[in-house]
Specification:
The protein is 0% helix and 37% strand. It is an all-beta fold and 167 residues long.
Length: 167
């Protein structure tokens, strides 16, 4: 029996073989990728982002403590926010996770859990207080800004709400 070549309706050719065909494929040559060795010091660290939260890097305008509520200007510079600061209350950025001894980089978190062993919260709401310090005492004047709630003595869950003018 001999091989027969037939043409299909779509123009393809089909071979009917009397003996099994052996298919030979070609393998591509292996590829080698070369990388350059790093020359010079490593770059600046990337943004810190805790699981479940939103954190970002900014620059402080001077010395700034960690765990303070800050506002951000149009240039990305953060400054401490007070609950009585009518001019900047709409610019609330979040809570600092890191401190700066002078003007320099700080990490700010906007939402999600923040832990600190120095805290001693009672489960419940937390507001913006004087000098950017989170407090569990709601303000009687200025602006009522609920920044989140404590879920344990050492954990604050940031969930910043719109401010309410108390004056």
């Amino acid at each position: 029996m001999s091989d027969q070549v037939m043409e299909r309706d779509d123009g393809a050719h089909v071979i009917e073989a009397s003996t099994p065909l052996q298919v030979v494929t070609e393998r591509a040559a292996p590829t080698m990728v070369l990388t350059e060795a790093r020359i010079g010091p490593p770059g600046a660290p990337g943004e810190i982002g805790p699981a479940g939260g939103t954190a970002f890097a900014r620059v402080s305008d001077g010395a700034l403590s960690a765990l303070r509520i800050v506002w951000e200007d149009g240039a990305g510079v953060v400054r401490m926010l007070d609950y009585r600061d009518a001019e900047h209350i709409n610019l609330l950025a979040g809570l600092t996770l890191t401190a700066a001894a002078a003007a320099g980089p700080v990490t700010v978190q906007r939402a999600g859990p923040v832990d600190d062993d120095a805290w001693s919260w009672v489960a419940g709401r937390v507001w913006l207080g004087a000098d950017g310090i989170p407090t569990q005492t709601p303000p009687a004047d200025g602006y009522d800004v609920l920044i989140g709630y404590a879920v344990s003595p050492t954990r604050l869950y940031l969930d910043i709400q719109d401010h309410i003018n108390l004056e």
